[in-house]
Amino acid sequence: MFAGKSAIVTGAGQGIGYEIVRQLVLQGARVILNDQDATLAARAVDAIRLSIENAEGAVGISGNALVGGGSFCLAMGGDASDTGFIGQLVERAVSEFGQLDIVIANAGITLFGDFLTYTPESFFRVLQVNLGGSFFLAQAAALQMKKQGTGGSILFTSSVTGHQAHKNLAAYGMSKAALEMLARNLVIELSPYHITVNAVAPGATLTERTADDAGYEKTWSAITPMGRPAAPADIAHAALFLVSPLARHITGQTLVIDGGWTATSPSPY
Length: 269
Fold this sequence. Notes:
The protein is an alpha/beta fold. Helix content is 43%, strand content 17%.
């Protein structure tokens, strides 16, 4: 479905972002895989290569993941909230692939803290990464897509905490709700260039990060109507739909993927 398309995915060294990249590559895309940790990004590319080497027509290449038809991914370590680095991401995609069709602003941070004692340092860091990085990556990508004249797709990673109150996540939840409003607002400015802008809002998801919480899976299985937290693939499938030709008339929307949790919203505490 994504043969000949090129993409940037930030925050993709592991978890949801990693699985999004893996699925894009398997379906023919050429992808810049970004993570702030350059070593983690390189390992992710190697892992993708290994995971697809047995696929029909697959060929392994050191440092890249290559599949029949010319799809592959390249690692690019760096801070996706830094505007200078954002420019480098877009330039690299264009120089390597000749164009930029898809951008998934997945990089984000969670800094828990009680509202009454939350520090300015934590607050502004959450906004810099979750909002600033997504805003300016979308801006840089949109300028490139406008120049190309062939449209494109931009996707933000929001969260169910942008829909329902969650203890100790006031700043984080605020930033995620703002991303959904950004997606809606950009409909006005980017639709004339045939650029869609949407968001996914994952609920509890089993990733390397949440695996460190011994009670995470048990707790969220008990309070999620579908009986389990999401797997990264559950989020990735929804993300790929929204940046695919199948969703070419969908823009300004947020798709919640939470096994029904926001319909009932029991607290995990």
